[in-house]
Amino acid sequence: MNDEAVSANTAPCAGMFGPAPRRATRQVRIGKVRVGGDAPVVVQSMTNTDTADVASTTKQVAELWRAGSELVRVTVNTPEAAAAVPRIVEKLAMMGVEVPIIGDFHYNGHQLLANEPACAEALAKYRINPGNVGFGKKRDTQFAQLVEFAIRHGKPVRIGANWGSLDQALAAKLMDENHALAVPLDAAEVLREALIRSALDSAARAVEIGLPADRIILSAKVSGVQELVAVYREMSRRSDFALHLGLTEAGIGSKGIVASSAALGVLLQEGIGDTIRISLTPEPGQSRTTEVIVAQELLQTMGLRAFTPMVTACPGCGRTTSSFFQELAKTVQEHVRAKMPEWKVTHPGAENLTLAVMGCVVNGPGESRHANIGISLPGTGEAPSAPVFVDGEKTVTLRGEHIAREFVALIDGYVERKFAAATRPG
Description:
Elements: E1 28-30, E2 33-35, E3 42-46, H1 54-67, E4 71-75, H2 79-94, E5 101-105, H3 109-115, H4 117-122, E6 125-128, H5 137-153, E7 157-162, H6 168-179, H7 187-209, E8 216-221, H8 225-238, E9 242-245, E10 251-252, H9 253-269, E11 275-276, E12 280-281, H10 290-301, E13 310-313, H11 324-346, E14 354-358, H12 364-370, E15 373-376, E16 386-390, E17 393-398, H13 403-419
Parallel strand pairs: 3-4, 3-11, 4-5, 5-6, 6-7, 7-8, 8-9, 9-11, 10-12, 13-14, 14-15
Antiparallel strand pairs: 1-2, 15-16, 16-17
């Protein structure tokens, strides 16, 4: 076991000015979405509706897709939920929502798929937790049944081990082996090893049953940042399966965002990870789509993908006692995010646009020149004028009560000139 112990202190060095090259993994197709290999890192999310409620689940899946989720997972835990899945997939197709739906199974998945073959066919992927597919002798049998359904229906599988539902038999076995060593490992290291082995051994068993290795994605989720980094470094060292990254319970609000960004940022910088989810606990009344936006912004700020024009804005200081620059920054960000679903089709490339909304003369003109389009608003005591810079050149100065409307119009005009040509014939 010493040879397979978690080597948490070793990691590849990222390049000086960017992430390390992506780790080579097998590519998996989930519907029309590619994960792993040379595909970009994919964003996914999960509904929190009762899947048996077709209307509310369909509505939330559509909202997540419009926000940019490329895969959406739903809970399949009851006969009613399993029966609802084909209807949800059908309704989404009628709405033009082309997003692969993943079924999340625990305890009774083998029975649900046997009783609802239409569900087995409608799902684009199955998620199996090896720690709770069954207990005792039933575990191996029921795991094999789930894998056989995937083989029969031509579906990929995510084998997702989880700290909170670790295979206790495997953990006890490794603890006993560790106790017999001359120099036993720390208990936390043994439990990390058990988590990794649960995923890897289950993947090996699935391949043995007949599931192709290029239809398997692995995950091994924990709640702690350092533990997640250690586990995935070792997973990536010991296999070439595509990896799904995410804390199992990131938390609410800023805590969840910070924890997820810290953990996933380290791994992505090292070239580890093929698909991600930011598992945020929504604040009361908050949209589920927040986790999608955070995932996109993490990938975009790291330079791994571009989803929507990003707005650079100064934090404000005693020179910016007016809140207008904050309001304009929010208006611009909301405008481009709302336009992006349309621009993605009609103006490809617009997602790479850089924008700047600055609040005073100190850094305003300089930052504005670095963006494709930037505006330097007047700070406290400055002349009531706002120069606009386009690709580094000052083009116009805005004044008066309609600066926000005029600046947004300049952005729309730039997108039309710069990116619409890509969609025109000839």
